[in-house]
Write a structure and sequence with these properties.
The protein has 314 residues and is mainly α. It contains 15 helices and 3 strands.
Length: 314
């Protein structure tokens, strides 16, 4: 007789024997109400956990008691077979671990052996960075042939000048902007507010947009959002993404260029210009210095390539 699988936990029968999906929505509400996670982060947890629960259902799992280490290992193997990147698999595992920790917190389970699983080893990831010359081309890409070139250029220059995420730029409001003092306030992950500086290029682009295009876009109404559509509605994160993709394609950039590429470029160029790593951490809104340190490796990689190319013994 084969050995019995070790269950994830042995909690109160009435709740732990329920289908795992029963606790899905309460978990998402917990992330929002008690953990204070942003809407985008909660959406990512929803997508990751939904895939796991769908897979669990396909395996005829009807209760939490049936989810054990072997089953979880099978799920990770399934993700690997589907050619998901190691970083994606690791993120899925984080979502599952947080879900089971929630179940322990709610006393649905008494323990979570999901924590015994280790994340797949991640290859060191160096983000794509544009050179200052290519960034200049991108910022200048909007032209008179475009429908709203002043707005589009203001969005692009704000992304690069501040290093903000697409969601942070799309959520900017008029009252967040302090052009006379060359800064604006943005709301980052975890609803943490930070001050980001605006360079002269961004300030000029924003002033042109606010004076010449935004009044027509807002159609005379009082609209709080800084960047708006032709219908006077707030510019969404997806719209920012499409905008960057369109102009990057116009100047011949690689297909993987996105708003985050401008964030990566901002950080790398700041380090190359002499910015301290702790200051850069604050500018980017990183909770951990380890996240910011990836840019020191990008800069080291760039300098190494220059050395190899230019040194007579390279």
């Amino acid at each position: 007789m084969p050995p019995r699988r070790k269950p994830v936990s042995a909690g109160p029968a009435a709740m732990a024997t329920a289908h795992p999906a029963t606790h899905f929505e309460p978990f998402l509400q917990y992330l929002t109400a008690e953990r204070g996670m942003s809407r985008n982060t909660v959406a990512a947890y929803r997508n990751d956990l939904n895939q796991f629960l769908t897979w669990v259902s396909s395996r005829k799992v009807a209760s939490l008691h049936q989810i054990d280490l072997a089953l979880l290992g099978d799920f990770l193997a399934f993700l690997h077979e589907q050619k998901f990147a190691a970083s994606t698999i690791a993120r899925r595992l984080v979502a599952i671990k947080e879900f089971f920790r929630f179940l322990v917190l709610e006393q649905v389970l008494t323990e979570s052996t999901v924590d015994l699983l280790t994340s797949p080893k991640l290859w060191q990831y160096l983000p794509t960075v544009l050179s200052p010359e290519v960034v200049d081309q991108l910022l200048s890409a909007p032209s008179g042939d475009d429908r709203f070139p002043l707005r589009d250029r203001a969005v692009l220059t704000t992304l690069y000048a501040t290093g903000c995420r697409a969601s942070e730029v799309s959520n900017l409001k008029i009252q967040d902007l302090k052009l006379s003092e060359n800064f604006c306030r943005c709301l980052g992950k975890g609803n943490k507010e930070r001050i980001v500086n605006l360079n002269p290029v961004a300030r000029a682009a924003l002033e042109a947009y606010l004076t010449k295009e935004r009044p027509a876009l807002a159609k005379g109404r009082s609209v709080d959002w800084l960047f708006v559509t032709r219908g006077g509605r707030a510019f969404s994160r997806i719209m920012v993404w499409h905008l960057v993709k369109r102009y990057a394609g116009r100047i011949g950039c690689a297909a993987d260029v996105s708003p985050h590429t401008l964030r990566h470029s901002f950080a790398t160029h700041m380090l190359a210009g002499g910015a301290e790593i702790r200051a850069l951490q604050e500018m980017l809104g990183h909770a951990s210095i380890r996240t910011t340190q990836i840019y020191t490796q990008v800069e080291h990689s760039r300098l190494k390539n220059i050395h190899t190319k230019c040194h007579p013994r390279g």
